[in-house]
Amino acid sequence: MAESPSPLLADRFAPRPEFGRTDHLLVDADPTTTWKSLRELDLTELRGGLAAFAVWFRDVPERWRARSEGGARERTRLTWNDLDAGTDWMILGENPGQEIALGAVGKFWRPVVKWVPCEPRDFPDFTEPGYGKVVWSFTAHPYGERRTLVSSEIRVTLTDPRAWLNFRRYWRISTPALSVISRAVLRTVKHKAETGGIRS
Q1: pTM
Q2: Count: domains in the chain
Q3: What is the CATH number of the domain that holds 134?
């Protein structure tokens, strides 16, 4: 009798998403090497000029606000742990070697996002009207004997109908940039895993 598939972290934190997208990429490296590349990823090193532009453009309003308040500091590194420690994003959970899930709560459709501080344990039950909850998860699974399938999945859940309408408009505009960033993350993981460009 076949074993039941183990649940994804994304299923725990966003079981019924209203918006989402998934990207996959085949890596010519074993799962251990690929996971190390994924876990140590530095988002400031994303491969592809369009990805860098998409990240920069999305941050323009907040950069401008920080500039008016005394200057914005350019990041020299941005790992998953850096996101968790220094931004409104959080690591919701991790299955070492297989999956990591990040999340955030806010009004993403605003020019300057209104974030809501939230702990991972409170994320599934957050229902305050007017907000969205986003889960961004990554998985690495064996594909044959020596390769790995890496996946990036974005799931968004809204807390009320008005938030849903607001986000739907934003989703239509932002999807191209999100797809560029998502695929750039996977390409960077692939490149580092296949070329040995990861820390020992």
Answers
A1: 0.84
A2: 1
A3: 3.30.530
